[in-house]
């Protein structure tokens, strides 16, 4: 999860022009949920994140792959002028 958060923050710095970013980590009995949200310029996510490979945008693909290795779920919510939120939910293995 650390590397996913790190990449999300790298994307905020590199692309978003955000003035604020929030990182939340929520624990339940069986799940861990990481949320990284910014108030930046946002973007229109493609239907399939794999479409970003052709554009050389590999940050979200890396997050998706790390999430897959943890048997988790990745959700990217964004829109032009609305900021971006990345949510990763995985089973709590601790």
UniProtKB/TrEMBL annotation:
It catalyses: ATP + protein L-histidine = ADP + protein N-phospho-L-histidine. Keywords: Kinase, Transferase. GO terms for biological process: phosphorelay signal transduction system. Residues 1-90 form the Histidine kinase/HSP90-like ATPase domain. Its EC number is 2.7.13.3. One of its GO terms (molecular function) is protein histidine kinase activity. SUPFAM superfamilies: ATPase domain of HSP90 chaperone/DNA topoisomerase II/histidine kinase (SSF55874). PANTHER family: NITRATE/NITRITE SENSOR PROTEIN NARX-RELATED (PTHR24421), NITRATE_NITRITE SENSOR PROTEIN NARQ (PTHR24421:SF10). This is histidine kinase. It comes from marine sediment metagenome.
């Amino acid at each position: 999860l650390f590397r996913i958060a790190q990449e999300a923050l790298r994307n905020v710095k590199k692309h978003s022009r955000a003035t604020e970013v929030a990182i939340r980590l929520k624990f339940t009995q069986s799940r861990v949920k990481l949320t990284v949200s910014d108030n930046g310029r946002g973007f229109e996510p493609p239907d399939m994140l794999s479409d970003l490979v052709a554009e050389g945008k590999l940050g979200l693909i890396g997050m998706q792959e790390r999430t897959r290795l943890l048997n988790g779920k990745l959700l990217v919510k964004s829109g032009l002028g609305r900021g971006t939120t990345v949510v990763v939910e995985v089973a709590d293995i601790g």
